[in-house]
Amino acid sequence: MSGAAQPNAPTSKLQPSSDSSDSTKQPPATKPAAAQLDEDDEFEDFPVEDWSKEEEVGAQQQQQQGGNNTHLWEESWDDDDTSDDFSVQLKAELKKMEGGKKG
Amino acid sequence: NTCNGYLLATTISPEAPATDPARLYNFNRGTNAYSLQTDLRYKLQYNPSLHLEKKEAAAWHEVFTAFYAFTGRLLAAEEAQTASRPREADWSSVYDSWKEVLSAVYRGYSGNVFEAWTIPCLYVVGKYLRIFAIKADEQAAASQRESGLAFGELQEEDAFGAASKSEKLEDAARQINRIFALCLGDRSPLEDSRKWALYYTANLLFKTYFRLNSIPLSKNILRSLRASASDTPELSSFPRAHQVTFKYYSGVIAFLEEDYASAEELLTFAYESCERRATRNLELILMYLIPTKMLTAHRLPTRQLLQTSPTLDRLFSPLCTAIKRADLRAFNAALEAGEDEFVKRRIYLTLERGRDILLRNLFRKVFIAGDTEDVKVEGGGVGAMARRTRIPVREIAAALRMAGATEIDDGEGGVDTDEVECLVANAIYKNHMKGYIARDRGIVVLSKTGAFPGTGV
C-alpha cells in the first residue's frame, strides 16, 4: 500500500545552501570511525547479508575433497614417527631398565 | 520488498555512501532549524511521488527531524576529531541524539505505522547505537584519565559512586532490548512481521553483552527465542549473515558453559556456512572450534587448516605438535607462551585439558616401545607375538620423567610413584586407556584388545 517509489527522495532533493565561505573547500565526508571498534571476539559485519551455497566454506571443501572434510581435522596422536628422538630414547631407556631388572 | 527496505535504511544511515560522501553534510546544511519542519513537510507529505499516508508521513517527519539534529552533532564531533581536537568531540551527545532517532523509529513500529519491509531501519538504528555508545564511553574514560581524576587507587567513580565506565553501552543494551521485545511481540502474519529482525537484533545484543562482560544475559535472549519458536520463522529462512552470526554466538555461549557437544555442533555449522572470504570471522569461529574439537572428538586441526590464518597458526601449531609427539615440555611452553591470549579468549582452561590427550599419547608410546612377548595359545604352545600388556610402573615413570613431567618428582631426585599411579588412574578413568593398576606388583595391566581406545592399538 505504501507506494514509495523513491524513498530516499527527501535527502537527495534538498539543495545545499550557497555558503560562500564553504564553496572553496570540500564538504567533509562523514565516516563514523567504526574501524577502531574491534574487540577480540566480536564478529564482524558481513559485507553482504546473504550468499549462495557455493560461496560457503563447506561447499568449497566439498569441491576440493570430493565430499570429505578430512583435510581439516586429524588424529591426535602420531604413529608415523616411531623413529623420532623421543621414541628412540624411550626404547633405549626401557631396554636398559628391563636389562637391569632381569639382572 | 526487502531491497527497498535496505535502500530506505540508507536514508537514515550515519555513514554516507561512497558515491556521495558529502551527503550528510549537504543534508544538514541544506536546511536549518527554522525551515526544517516546512522542508520535511514538503518532501514527505505534500510530495506527489511519495504517496504516504498521513500517519506514515508524520512518523517519518519525526524520524527526519531527529535525524537532522543528529547530523548536526555528528558533523561537529567529526570535525573536532579530524581537526585533531579529539577531546572536544562530543560523542556523548552524538549518542543521545542518535537515541532520539532510534526512539522516533521505534514509535513508528510500536504504533504499527511502519510496515515490516522497512525493518532494515531497525538494523541501522541498533547497529549505530552500539557504535556511538562505545565511542562515547571511550571518550568518557579518556577524559577521566586526562583530567587526572584517578588519584592512585581512589578513582573518581569510587569517590562519587558515579556512572560506570560503560554507561552508554549499558543504556544501548536496554534500548536494543526494547527493540528485541518489540519484534518478538509482533502478532502480524509472517509476511508482514517484525520478527524478521529478531536474529539481527539478538546478535546485536550478544555483541553488546559480550563487550560488557555480561554474557549470562545472553541466555535470556536464547530463552526468549526458544519460548517463541513455534510462531517464529525457522532460523534457516533468515539471511545467512544472521544465521552464521547467531550460531557463532550460541556456540561460544555453549562453550563457556562447558556444553562442548552443543558448541561443536553450533560452531561447525557457523564455520561451514560462513562466507568463504570472511577470514576474520572464520578465524574467530575456529578459535573456539579448535579447543572444542580437541575435547569432544580428540581431533586436532591439520597443518592445512592452521595455515589459513597466521594468528591460529601461531597460537595453536606448537600446542598441537606437542600433543601429537607427547612432548610435555613443549606443551607447557606453548601453553605459557599463549597464556595471555588464551585467557583473554577464555579458552585457556579448555586447552589445558589437552594435557590428558598428551599423556595418553605418552603412555601409548611406552606401550608401543615395549617388548613383544609370546602369547600363550590354548592347548599349549606359543602363538603370535603381541606387545606385552603388563607394564611396570617404573617404566612409565621413566617415560614421564623423560618427557618433562615435573609433577612426579618427589623433591629428592627420585620419583613419586603415587603421582605416577594417579596420572595412570586418571587416564583409565577418562577411558583413554583400558586396564588397571596392580599396585602391589607395581605394574599396569592393559587390556589385550584396544588398550588405547580410538587410536588403533
Automatic annotation (TrEMBL), chain A:
Record's compositionally biased regions (Acidic residues): 37-48, 75-84
GO biological process, one term: double-strand break repair via homologous recombination
Compositional bias ranges of the Low complexity kind: 10-36
Domain of life the protein comes from: Eukaryota
Region Disordered: start-end pairs: 1-84
Record InterPro entries: DSS1_SEM1
Presence of the UniProt keyword Lyase in the record: no
GO cellular component: nucleus; proteasome regulatory particle, lid subcomplex
Subcellular location: Nucleus
CDD domains attached to this UniProt entry: DSS1_Sem1
UniProt keyword annotation of Nucleus present: yes
SMART domains to which the protein is assigned, alphabetical: DSS1_SEM1 (SM01385)
Keywords, sorted A to Z: Nucleus, Proteasome
Family according to the record: Belongs to the DSS1/SEM1 family.
Described function: Component of the 26S proteasome, a multiprotein complex involved in the ATP-dependent degradation of ubiquitinated proteins.
Protein name: 26S proteasome complex subunit SEM1
Species the sequence originates in: Friedmanniomyces endolithicus
Taxonomy of the source species: Eukaryota, Fungi, Dikarya, Ascomycota, Pezizomycotina
Automatic annotation (TrEMBL), chain B:
Domain PCI: 244-451
Family (UniProt): Belongs to the CSN12 family.
PROSITE patterns: PCI
UniProt-recorded name of the protein: Protein CSN12 homolog
A Pfam family: PCI
SMART domains per record: PAM (SM00753)
Gene: CSN12_3
GO molecular function, one term: RNA binding
Lineage: superkingdom: Eukaryota
Organism name: Friedmanniomyces endolithicus
